[in-house]
Amino acid sequence: MAWISLVIAGLLEILWAFSMKQSEGFTRLWPSVITLSAMGVSFALLAWSMRSLPLGTAYTVWTGIGAVGAFIVGILVLGESANPLRIAAALMIVGGLVLMKLSSPA
Hints:
Structural class: mainly alpha
């Protein structure tokens, strides 16, 4: 269950990052509410996951899901650049996440 919670926490990190962008510096109400709510639940699930997963693994996976997910949302939804170097960087992050999972005792 810790891994499932951690993945959900990472997905919520993508949501709050996107909502934060949409909030325009917390000047728009509903994107700001979504940002703060998703942050709270994401942090809570991360904390719960850390009860049984190593700190380094849990935090790395959480931030990695958020980073790669925000990168993908930026490209697909916001029209950000998808040049080969950025894609290679995202693939390296995914590779690191896979290695973290494989090396975790939990």
